């Protein structure tokens, strides 16, 4: 690592072993190596995650995943959490190709988080690839992290305690698996299947952890003295936001329920509050409940709780997902139809995640490749271009755009241009779901 990345990033040798040298916002500058203090500030805030043949680089505004085969834009991290023995690792192994998370009938069989990258299923991409006669089709991706089971008292160190909580801070969204099936052969950590109790345990531990962090931060803000008016303004905004969040947590509400301005959100972002992250409740049921999940009283209870907590919900059978991985792709659809469903749980889960996070997909398509790109809803054409490469955004001239339906109807960009369906959009254009785009830029 040292030999490869130190010359590339031009960072002093000692700095590579010290995370604080990379400019983490929570680190004390006094701890930085002297050699690093003398250098000009390095613009990137870097977090290196070596594994799965990939290097994950975070620059504060965009999250990108660099892999050995290709660069995938806006890679998302979703943490799979829950009490022990609710089906987390079984679900992880099912949705992640070649997943190797240990699944066993005892608590804490998962210690370190397992990480796997999953292609986002999107049939539109294959249609575009065939029409453009592309050499390959490159889907968008989502990164799943299987995190160890949480127990009551984790915020005080019970079970895996703060180690578990630190893993949650690193993800973009939380998928909380809730057991909604009865099985005497699989031990429940609390002795009975009770979704509300399970959800309350986890949410309470997240609240306790956030409260502890907020108290420490507010104490530090009282002692600190801002050096300039801009820093003082930001500290005041952070203090005001944290006091309101603290009150909401004391009332049993998550931090995400507090209305904050964009400036306040930016001020508290560095704390990575657990209850600020969006949550999707994953109701794990038996295959007999997949077609009519509403008939399962446990699922109904989870639906009501998800609505109260302003969260999403997806019904999945981890066991069925596991069985699907053992079938040839052409037989999977027939198997799902025999169970009364049309789509796998993975497809439902990813779609709900995209919806909850406010994400959209646009495409680029040509003879070399057809590719799906993930962006935030409301992004302009230059911002969407920047997801591919920063130079595209800097030198943006215009975007030649056609809707997916019009592209399919005409068969190509050239045909769409001839029929007047290919539009020339400028810097203010808001990219729409399913747009097929060709960017013109100049550096």
From TrEMBL:
SUPFAM superfamilies to which the protein is assigned, alphabetical: P-loop containing nucleoside triphosphate hydrolases, TGS-like
Annotated spans, Disordered: 19-38
Coiled-coil segments: 204-231
Gene3D superfamilies, sorted: 3.10.20.30, P-loop containing nucleotide triphosphate hydrolases, TGS-like domain
Cellular-component GO terms for this entry: cytoplasm
Keywords from the UniProt entry: ATP-binding, Coiled coil, Cytoplasm, Hydrolase, Metal-binding, Nucleotide-binding
Domain OBG-type G: 76-358
Family: Belongs to the TRAFAC class OBG-HflX-like GTPase superfamily. OBG GTPase family. YchF/OLA1 subfamily.
Subunit record text: Monomer.
Cross-referenced PANTHER family: OBG GTPASE FAMILY (PTHR23305), OBG-TYPE G DOMAIN-CONTAINING PROTEIN (PTHR23305:SF18)
Protein name as annotated: Obg-like ATPase 1
Species per Swiss-Prot/TrEMBL record: Durio zibethinus
């Amino acid at each position: 690592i040292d030999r490869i990345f130190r010359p590339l990033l031009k960072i002093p040798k000692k700095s590579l072993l010290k995370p604080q040298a990379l400019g983490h916002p929570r680190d004390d500058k006094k701890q930085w190596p002297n050699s690093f203090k003398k250098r000009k500030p390095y613009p990137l805030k870097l977090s290196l995650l070596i594994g799965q043949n990939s290097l994950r680089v975070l620059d504060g505004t965009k999250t990108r995943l660099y892999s050995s085969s290709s660069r995938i834009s806006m890679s998302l991290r979703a943490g799979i959490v829950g009490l022990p023995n609710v089906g987390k690792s079984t679900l992880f192994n099912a949705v992640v190709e070649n997943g190797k998370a240990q699944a066993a009938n005892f608590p804490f069989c998962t210690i370190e988080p397992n990480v796997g990258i999953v292609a986002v299923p999107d049939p539109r991409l294959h249609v575009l690839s065939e029409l453009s006669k592309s050499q390959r089709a490159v889907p968008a991706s989502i990164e799943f992290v299987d995190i160890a089971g949480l127990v009551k008292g984790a915020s005080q160190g019970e079970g895996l305690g703060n180690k578990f909580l630190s893993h949650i801070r690193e993800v973009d969204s939380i998928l909380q698996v809730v057991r909604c099936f009865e099985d005497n052969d699989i031990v429940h950590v609390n002795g009975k299947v009770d979704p509300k109790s399970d959800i309350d345990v986890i949410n309470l531990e997240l609240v306790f952890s956030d409260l502890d962090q907020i108290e420490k931060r507010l104490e530090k803000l009282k002692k600190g003295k801002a050096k300039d008016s801009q820093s003082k303004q930001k500290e005041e905004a952070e203090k005001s936001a944290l006091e309101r969040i603290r009150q909401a947590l004391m009332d049993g509400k998550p931090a995400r329920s507090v209305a904050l301005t964009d400036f306040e959100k930016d001020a508290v972002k560095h704390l990575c509050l657990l209850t600020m992250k969006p949550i999707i409740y994953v109701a794990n049921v038996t295959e007999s409940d997949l077609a009519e999940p509403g008939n399962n009283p446990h699922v109904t209870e989870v639906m009501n709780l998800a609505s109260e907590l302003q969260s999403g919900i997806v019904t999945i059978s981890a066991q069925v997902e596991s069985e699907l991985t053992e079938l040839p792709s052409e037989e999977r659809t027939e198997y799902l139809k025999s169970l009364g469903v049309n789509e796998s749980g993975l497809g439902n889960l990813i779609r709900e995640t995209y919806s909850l996070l406010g994400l959209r997909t646009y495409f680029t398509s040509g003879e070399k490749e057809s590719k799906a790109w993930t962006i935030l809803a409301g992004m302009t054409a230059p911002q969407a271009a920047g997801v591919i490469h920063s130079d595209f955004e800097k030198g943006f001239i215009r975007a030649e755009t056609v809707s997916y339906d019009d592209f399919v109807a005409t068969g190509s960009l050239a045909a769409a241009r001839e029929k007047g369906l290919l539009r020339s959009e400028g810097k203010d254009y808001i990219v729409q779901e399913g747009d097929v785009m060709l960017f013109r830029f100049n550096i």
